Amino acid sequence: MSELSKIGDGxxxxxxxxxxxxxxxxSNGEQxxxxxxxxxxxxxxLRRIIGDLPTQEFALVRLLLAVAHDALAGxxxxxxxxxxxxxxxxxxxxxxxxxxxxxxxxxxxxxxxxFQTAGLRTSKDEVFSLNRIVADVPNGEPFFSAxxxxxxxxxxxxxxxxxxxxxxxxxxxxxxxxxxxxxVKGGKVYPLGVGWAGNLGGVFVERPxxxxxxxxxxVAEDTNGVRIDEQDAPAWRRAPCGPGGAERAPSxxxxxxTWQTRRLRLHFDEQGVHGVVLGYGDPLSPRNKHDREPMTAxxxxxxxEKKLRESPVxxxxxxxxxxxxxxxxxxLIADTSxxxxxxxxxxxxxxxxLEWVARLVSEGKLERGFLVRARVIGPQYGxxxxxxxxxxxxxxxxxxxxxxxxxxxxxxxxxxxVDDADRAVYAIGDLATNLARAAGAETxxxxxxxxxxxxxxxxxxxxxWLRSLAKxxxxxEQRLAWQRQVYRIAAGFGDRLMAAAGDGAWQGRIVExxxxxxxxxxxxxxxxxxxxxxxxxxNPDPSRTDPDTDQRTDxxxxxxxxx
Length: 563
Fold this sequence. Notes:
Layout: E1 5-6, E2 12-13, E3 22-26, E4 31-34, H1 36-41, E5 46-49, H2 54-72, H3 78-85, H4 94-100, H5 156-169, E6 175-176, E7 188-189, E8 202-206, H6 210-216, H7 253-257, E9 262-269, E10 272-280, E11 298-300, H8 302-308, E12 314-316, H9 330-333, E13 336-338, E14 346-349, H10 352-362, E15 371-382, E16 387-399, H11 409-439, H12 444-468, H13 475-500, H14 502-507, E17 509-513, E18 516-520, H15 522-537, H16 555-562
Antiparallel strand pairs: 1-2, 3-4, 3-5, 6-7, 8-15, 9-10, 11-12, 11-14, 13-14, 15-16, 17-18
Helix pairs in contact: 2-5, 11-12, 11-13, 11-15, 12-13, 13-15, 13-16
């Protein structure tokens, strides 16, 4: 159990290298809490980190990666990484490294407390509620409901996790100024943005063990598109932070994974932490950091290019809470997407960590059928970024062949298969709209409900299809099989919508169309629906002519079209 200890001079201590504070899920399904040292020593026996929130898990994984990069001094290149991958004791150097830097990992150290600023104070010596670092998600429905409206106390282990999370995801807004911060105006510091990771649509690669997860996200220093300076270092190998902040450029992944976006000081007694002082730290704009930050996709911002008169300008591509990860797979596996704006710069960049995995499979370090899970985690801020409204936590399991840099056939068909689903859902939405119009009812509600339901019906089949895609030698034939499956699912759901439409839709009414007025009833709505499905997905039975379209769908012709 985590507890306060005393060091030689009688001062309080909570050493994160030896005290348990990181929640983990073991491979046997049991939960535990481990120290930093234990996490690396037992990484092969652990399934994953489990934070109090998904964003906390992401922040802790980045902390572990910073430790691993620094302790292992790399990896310098793909061969160094391959040696680590094949060595069960690959993290052996982490123990001595943590021992050498143990003082900087002491949460309660009087001069260099972990991720804090010693002596941090406001002009009135105010100490604030721990609500300032404990995230309530969703906003207005606190995670720690048993402790609200105020979080009175945290154990030292809990406090350490929330300190890491605050640097990564703290909200923006006006904050009380601290002594020594030159940005204070009238006792306040005005909004300077969220914690660094809060800007990102976080992405990392998962495997069944934490050891494999950490190694697959351990990008080599010579990775294309990721710039890591020779002097790159994590926060604990830099000079302790004073009050206020310094504007500087990041030196690499170790720096960014531990970026000190806040200034913190915990207040505690022997029973735990009871208060905090929190202020702004080092500001960092996310603009054009795509060559530094590997754990997010990037989008080109034409609006920023026009405003700043520079090109290209890339910003992190955040996650949409209303769009499941499988529907956004293009942002994960598409290597480039040309903008069409008269420039060769791509409109989107996939996460560099996936570029790294693509390199591993392209150079034969991973088998083409090797399965990984792309995990996506990110917050959605509300009210001028002063609160967290929602957190996205989703994943997509895929074979690494989808990331292969020379063989793009599998990725292209995986992306196109999502387009198939989108087109089928669009047709279903039109059917629901037309049935509502035929009955004289409002259309927006039925359309949205039908579309949401349809995506739900297609999600599990798509995920299963994606996992099996690497097992085939012909991704085009697999795409055809997927289209037939989508057709059957969509047609079946359409039948249920028809059955539920009621007498009003069956009888119909006169409506305005692009071609004039028409008598719209459920029979005509169904005919339009079947025509749309056949047009978008092809006839699921190539031997049969669809009477509604009077067209014959030849599988060979369709296969050529897919290519």
